[in-house]
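Design a sequence for this backbone.
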């Protein structure tokens, strides 16, 4: 299985959009669990790393690009 590369403060796209309509999420905590924050409404969600990797589509903006 191909491992997706992401890091703290990356903006990622998930497979399903948030109910507010936004599909841009910022990675705000990394560890065994990943916490992501919706760029639209500011709601944050914590997911186990494995589940996050399954649901993440791609990195839109890498933190080291900024």
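Sequence:
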């Amino acid at each position: 299985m191909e491992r997706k590369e992401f890091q703290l403060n990356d903006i990622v796209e998930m497979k399903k959009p948030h109910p507010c309509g936004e599909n841009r999420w910022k990675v705000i905590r990394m560890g065994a669990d990943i916490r992501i924050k919706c760029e639209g409404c500011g709601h944050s969600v914590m997911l186990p790393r494995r589940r996050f990797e399954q649901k993440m589509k791609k990195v839109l903006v890498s933190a080291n690009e900024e």
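Residues 49-55 form the longest helix (7 residues).
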